[in-house]
Every structure is written in structure tokens, then in C-alpha cells.
From TrEMBL:
InterPro entries attached to this UniProt entry: MethylDNA_cys_MeTrfase_AS (IPR001497), MethylDNA_cys_MeTrfase_DNA-bd (IPR014048), MethylDNA_cys_MeTrfase_DNAb (IPR036217), MGMT_N_sf (IPR036631), WH-like_DNA-bd_sf (IPR036388)
Record keyword Manganese present: no
Name listed for the protein in its UniProt record: Methylated-DNA--[protein]-cysteine S-methyltransferase
NCBIfam families: ogt
Domain Methylated-DNA-[protein]-cysteine S-methyltransferase DNA binding: residue ranges: 91-173
A Pfam family this chain is assigned to: DNA_binding_1
Catalytic activity, reaction form: a 4-O-methyl-thymidine in DNA + L-cysteinyl-[protein] = a thymidine in DNA + S-methyl-L-cysteinyl-[protein]; a 6-O-methyl-2'-deoxyguanosine in DNA + L-cysteinyl-[protein] = S-methyl-L-cysteinyl-[protein] + a 2'-deoxyguanosine in DNA
Alphabetical keyword list: DNA damage, DNA repair, Methyltransferase, Transferase
Matches recorded under PANTHER family: METHYLATED-DNA--PROTEIN-CYSTEINE METHYLTRANSFERASE
Length: 187
């Protein structure tokens, strides 16, 4: 069996330096922003150690342009981007397909996503595991999947849950608790 060849590109956005890696099948890895090109490259190559820097295809260039627009706060839809999910099991691919349907500025929970897939709420942990192992974060918008009760939950990208919160804020999602239903008397 022939080995898949991956190429990658590191590029700067308003949010920091991102990395993208691709194969003939599509985008295989996306690295969310870090403060330096070197850190981004190191993180990307940790997952795809045999990838080589390369000239991006037109599809990759279009995705890079969309990522730049995203981090400038412009509504962006990545649902048409071809992804290479080779090596992912069928259930994770189903979870990723469901997550890709969550549009700009919208959120769901791990449990709700599990229910949408026709599995019980006990599968919410599996959904969380899939989100943590998402090879193309942002393109598969794992940042839009929250913990029970709309809590931010974890995020395995650089910056952790504060990065997740910033990405949601870019999309206009308010994570603050709702104002109290009853006004204080002020004393």
C-alpha cells in the first residue's frame, strides 16, 4: 500500500500563526493559532512528522483565505472544505459530519450531538473524545460543541478553553450567564 504524502503551510492570521496540512484527499490537519510560526510548525509536525512544506493547491489557498477571514471576525463557512479523515473510525466520522452542520454563531452540547446521532446521552463522552482528537479543528468546528448546561468545557488547542471562548466571541456567541430573572432591590 502506498504511503500518503502530506504537505503543509504555515501562515499568519489576525489570531496568530496557523498551520494546514493536506493530502490528495483533502485537508488532513489544521493547527489553530499560536504566537509564532515555529510553535505552529512544531505542533503540526508532531501529528504529521513526515509532512513536507509544499506549494498549496487552489483548494488549500481558498481554505487559508477563509481562515484569515474567520480570524478577522467575518462569517465563514467551512462545510464545503474537503477533509481527509483517513484513520478515523466510522463513529468519529459520523460525529465530525454532525459537527460540521453547526453553523456560524451557533452551539450545541456533547449530549445533544450524541442524541442527534441516535445514540444515548452516555455517548456524550465519546463525542467529547472525538472533539478532543479532531484533526482539523475550525474546519470541523469543535469549538461550537459545549459541555452540559452550555458550559465552555475543555479545548485541546493552544490556549485551552480561553481560545475556545475567544473563537465563539468572534462568532457573536455570548457565554456569559443570563441576567437574573429578578432584579435586586439594591441594598
Amino acid at each position: 500500500m502506498a504511503k500518503t504524502t502530506h504537505h503543509y503551510l504555515i501562515f499568519e492570521t489576525a489570531g496568530g500563526f496557523c498551520g494546514i496540512a493536506w493530502s490528495d484527499a483533502g485537508i488532513a490537519r489544521f493547527q489553530l493559532p499560536t504566537k509564532s510560526a515555529e510553535a505552529t510548525e512544531r505542533l503540526l509536525l508532531r501529528r504529521l512528522p513526515d509532512a513536507e512544506a509544499g506549494a498549496p493547491t487552489l483548494a488549500v489557498l481558498e481554505t487559508v483565505a477563509a481562515v484569515k477571514r474567520y480570524f478577522q471576525g467575518e462569517e465563514t463557512d467551512f462545510s464545503g472544505v474537503e477533509v481527509d479523515l483517513a484513520g478515523q473510525d466510522a463513529f468519529f466520522r459520523d460525529i465530525y459530519a454532525a459537527a460540521r452542520r453547526i453553523g456560524w454563531g451557533r452551539t450545541t452540547t456533547y449530549g445533544a450531538l450524541a442524541k442527534e446521532l441516535g445514540v444515548g446521552p452516555e455517548a456524550a463522552r465519546d463525542v467529547g473524545q472525538a472533539m478532543a482528537k479532531n484533526p482539523v479543528a475550525l474546519i470541523i468546528p469543535c469549538h461550537r460543541v459545549l459541555a452540559a448546561g452550555g458550559k465552555i468545557g475543555g479545548f485541546s488547542a493552544p490556549g485551552g478553553s480561553s481560545s475556545k471562548a475567544r473563537m465563539l466571541e468572534l462568532e457573536g456567541v455570548n457565554l456569559a450567564p443570563p441576567p437574573p430573572a429578578q432584579q435586586s432591590l439594591g441594598f
